[in-house]
């Protein structure tokens, strides 16, 4: 189940093993609020059985945005982008969910930088595929935070070079990342840079 979740597609088996070992199975009765809108992002969940509603509260009125079903994630955007949770997550029936704590998740990712890049790519692709204005706003904010190096996920220089993001490249180089270091596919930032015919003069200035 975990390897089929959109966020973890393409990550290493070692990372999946570490993540699964940190997940806690929890059960919630019908009409239970698992996550509250605007609360601090401490955990995210994979829905194993049952279904939940994503509920938006505006001016004292509740609106169901959509339903999430087994195999889907809830709460991950708040955790990854470190922003208040977007929606209240409310069970529709008895549900089993796998809970993953934010601190535990980030601790694992910090030692798996290549996988962190895969996860960020998966998140950005997911946000780009969403058509509603809320998710488009989240995408813009995430791209902005990414460029300023404000996200907690570890990223490779090749990720920044492939995106053509010179601001992010500057941020990562200042942290001491090696432009010759290879990612999970054996590509270095310099190779990624050349493959896209980009010209980042600060590579040669290091």
Automatic annotation (TrEMBL):
It comes from the Eukaryota. SMART domains: cNMP (SM00100). Pfam families: cNMP_binding. Keywords: Ion channel, Ion transport, Membrane, Potassium, Potassium channel, Potassium transport, Transmembrane, Transmembrane helix, Transport, Voltage-gated channel. Signal peptide: none annotated. Residues 7-126 form the Cyclic nucleotide-binding domain. The keyword DNA damage does not apply. Its main location: membrane. It is a multi-pass membrane protein. The segment S4 is probably the voltage-sensor and is characterized by a series of positively charged amino acids. The pore-forming region H5 is enclosed by the transmembrane segments S5 and S6 in the Shaker-type (1P/6TM) and contains the GYGD signature motif which seems to be involved in potassium selectivity. Potassium channel. Belongs to the potassium channel family. Plant (TC 1.A.1.4) subfamily. This is Potassium channel. The lineage of its organism: Eukaryota, Viridiplantae, Streptophyta, Embryophyta, Tracheophyta.
